[in-house]
Write the structure tokens for this entry.
Amino acid sequence: MLDYDKEAEAYDSTRGGEPRALAAADAVLGLVPETARTLLDVACGTGSVTRRLAAGRPGLRVTGVDAAYGMARLAAARMPGTVALADSRRLPFPDGEFDAVTTVWLLHLVDGPGDARAVVAECARVLRPGGVYVTTVDKAAAHDVGSDIDAVLAPRPRRPAQDRAERVASYAVEHGLLPAGRARFRGHGQGRSPRGTTADLRRGWFTQLAPDGPLTEQFIARLEALPDQEVPRTEPEFTLLAFRRPKSAG
């Protein structure tokens, strides 16, 4: 797992920057009802998407939380007074506090199904009746675009995907949420190049490969043999799922 306190300063520039943040926020807002007045962005990171959520919907009061101090500090600079440090498995808010809750690029990072279920449970808990929970799913699969780089990396060891769509949907249903839509958006600036992927391997971005391990060196040698070392391949397309908490009977 990456140290997101250390990653904070370079996070936006290495992950598509503002174009990707805008694409994500626009897609999220397309699944949030116009009537929503409060939104909680869980694991808000540097606040790049969070800020766009607020800017894209006048009248929507957006709050961000993140467990990494470095990330939350940058988010707070972008959105003063609206960002807090918090564990997504234990949110510091009462039941039914928000009209909408989002987790963008969070569930793929958790350690196991227990943590993923706990995050979804907390998001459901703080959601008011009639409110909507929106989350990214299948993030790792989105990055496999069928390129020559993907062919080289195909045999690598992988973590089980905790954000598989069907798994996340089952957690949502367990906690009283019903399917309410889906959307897709482009990962601007995230098409992999051979040279960039080599750098990512050496930095430990592929969590099951030690940066200086012999298996990593084998993959790097294969990547260095590919043509067009600086040319990015196809950008990923990410998937969002929305779930609604039913309104109370009567």
In short: Residues 95 and 126 are 4 Å apart (CA to CA). The two ends are 46 Å apart (CA to CA). The longest helix spans residues 17-29. The chain has one domain: 4-143+160-191+234-244.
